Amino acid sequence: MKAMIFAAGLGTRLRPITDTKPKALVAVGGMTLLEIAIKRLKSIGCQDIIINIHHFGQQIVDYIQQNDYFGIKIQFSDESEKLLDTGGGLKKAAWFFDDAPFFVYNADILSDIDLKAMYDNHLKNNPLATLAVKTRKSSRQLLFDDQESLCGWENVVSGEKKIARAVSPLHPLAFSGIHVIHPAIFEFFPDEAVFSIIDLYLEIAKTKEIRGFRHEQSFLHDVGKLDSLEKAAEYVQQLFPKQQ
Questions:
Q1: Has domain 2-243 been given CATH number 2.40.10.170?
Q2: Taking 50 as the threshold, does the pLDDT of residue 95 lie above it?
């Protein structure tokens, strides 16, 4: 199984820590965010991972090498010249994937979501992409129908909505930063180099299926701000109790 870890972000909300290192190498509970993501993916059979890099990207390369690639195959997609956003980042790494569904995993989230169950759910339903979602407060919500198919997006602060399919009722769920994607999705990618994967999902959802995978019983913690780090350490202890 293959996977991509998004680790190219600037981490501006974690300054001053990220003034000298990439967000993916911020340590919580004795482990870096990148190590946590790698070990979570490795635990369900991912043996081949690509990581996109930009902000202090060489530090990430050095870190992976110093840790002997964590016993798996790890390659890098270099975005040092220009950040490509989530969709553009995945497009640049398209060469890496074969014909099997793969994970895309944000480096800055912590969750005990059952990744194997999510992957099996994707194989069972066979959409172009399956998105981990749950009910939680967020300014941006994805909108799903009763069958868990993506139908739209809403910014609850500004009131902006993007509707792919006008059905009722629609259920707002927050995206958890974990995807399982079928490689056939690359046929739908636009020509431009920089674009949002969420915007692409909304465009695809007009004619094809993008599904949600609800994980209401598992935790989701976004390590995006300085005041989130202390709580993050507690979640790491839950994820890796034997290593703490």
A1: no
A2: yes
63 burial level (CB within 10 Å; 0-12, 13-18, 19+): middle
Helix (H) or strand (E) holding 86: helix 85-92
**Judging by beta carbons within 10 Å of its beta carbon (0-12, 13-18, 19+), is residue 129 exposed, middle or buried?**
buried
- 194 torsion bin: left (phi>0), alpha (psi -120 to 50), beta (else): beta
Name the phi and psi angles at 73, rounded to 5: -85, 125
Average predicted confidence (pLDDT) for the chain? 93
pTM: 0.93
**pLDDT digit string (tens) for 131-142?**
999 999 989 999
Hey, where are the domains in the chain? 2-243
